């Protein structure tokens, strides 16, 4: 298995939910974690627990993303892992969605993934190694009522990562995609830990363990896609 000790890992959407769970678990495995989100206060508390860096940033802002990459390289001199977790969603009938909802979801879910990969891939190519993990959704592989915009953004994110996987594999870089079902976070209408979600949703820690599993796979093992099933909490 791959050792994550001293690996430099950028995790987006790290202030709460899945991103926070991923950041904490990677730090426990010895990785140097750079936590990225818009909430500076929550990030500072997380950075204290992970003994890593906290960099407030908007994942859809090109200057912010470039700054995260440059600050990481200045501090650690390398980047080994990128976990694209930041995501937003809202669910409505197509005709009841405002155009700015389309922009918001595509900015965070798709553009954010694009920008981080754009600025990190050249460094991974130069070192001929690295691993990008995209946390998308099971709705990147299916459609559902009221999910027109969110589903479209996740299909687009999935296509981006799938194409990138083919581009960078000859350079020794892995790209993996995780498709969680419902996860017990603030992303959903119910509050985390409520009776409504306890038996039907994955926990953020379940997704974090899937990220760890992928990252620790031996170098010759390529796991392109991993689907998580919320009702059984198995993967």
UniProtKB/TrEMBL annotation:
<dbReference type="InterPro" id="IPR036291">
    <property type="entry name" value="NAD(P)-bd_dom_sf"/>
</dbReference>
<comment type="similarity">
    <text>Belongs to the short-chain dehydrogenases/reductases (SDR) family.</text>
</comment>
<dbReference type="InterPro" id="IPR002347">
    <property type="entry name" value="SDR_fam"/>
</dbReference>
<protein>
    <submittedName>
        <fullName>SDR family oxidoreductase</fullName>
    </submittedName>
</protein>
<keyword id="KW-0560">Oxidoreductase</keyword>
<dbReference type="Pfam" id="PF00106">
    <property type="entry name" value="adh_short"/>
</dbReference>
